[in-house]
Amino acid sequence: MKKGVSLLVAVALMALASSLASASDPSPLQDTCVAIDAPKSWYFFIFVNGKFCKNPNLTVAEDFFYQGLNIPGNTTNRVGSNVTTVNVDAIPGLNTLGISLVRIDYAPYGQNPPHTHPRATEILTVLEGTLLVGFVTSNPQTASLAKF
C-alpha cells in the first residue's frame, strides 16, 4: 500500500513540475550581431546563434549586402531546379534577425523536392511562368494547392 501511495505522489509531483515548464526563443542581446568566424581579440566578443559577433563599432554596410541573386542558377540536374541560398553565411549581418532567403530557378517541369521549414515562413514570388505549389499540414482540412 505504501509503494502505491508513494508512486502516486511521485507521479503527481512530476505532473505538477512539468506543467510549470516553459520554452521560448531567446531574445537577441542587441539589435544586430554581425557574424564573424573568430574574434581577433578576446577583449570584446559576444557569442550568439553559434557565431561570434563583430564589434558593433566596426560594422559596415557590406555586412548586410549580397551580390548574386540576379544570376540564374544551373537547372540541368535531375530535379530541374537550382536553389541559391542567402543566409547568415552569405550576409553576416543577418545573424540574430531570423531572416534568410533563396532564389529558386526552375527548368520547364522542374521540381523542388518536398521539404519543411520548421518554425519559419515561406513567401513565393513568381517572376515568369506558372508555379504549382502544394502546402501539406498535419490537419488535412488545411492542406492546399496554389497556382501562381
Automatic annotation (TrEMBL):
Oxalate binds at residues 112, 117, 122. Keywords: Apoplast, Disulfide bond, Glycoprotein, Manganese, Metal-binding, Secreted, Signal. Gene3D superfamilies: Jelly Rolls. Pfam families: Cupin_1 (PF00190). GO terms for cellular component: apoplast. It is found in: Secreted, Extracellular space, Apoplast. SUPFAM superfamilies: RmlC-like cupins (SSF51182). PANTHER family: GERMIN-LIKE PROTEIN SUBFAMILY 3 MEMBER 3. Belongs to the germin family. This is Germin-like protein subfamily 1 member 7. It comes from Vitis vinifera (Grape). The gene is VvCHDp000218_2.
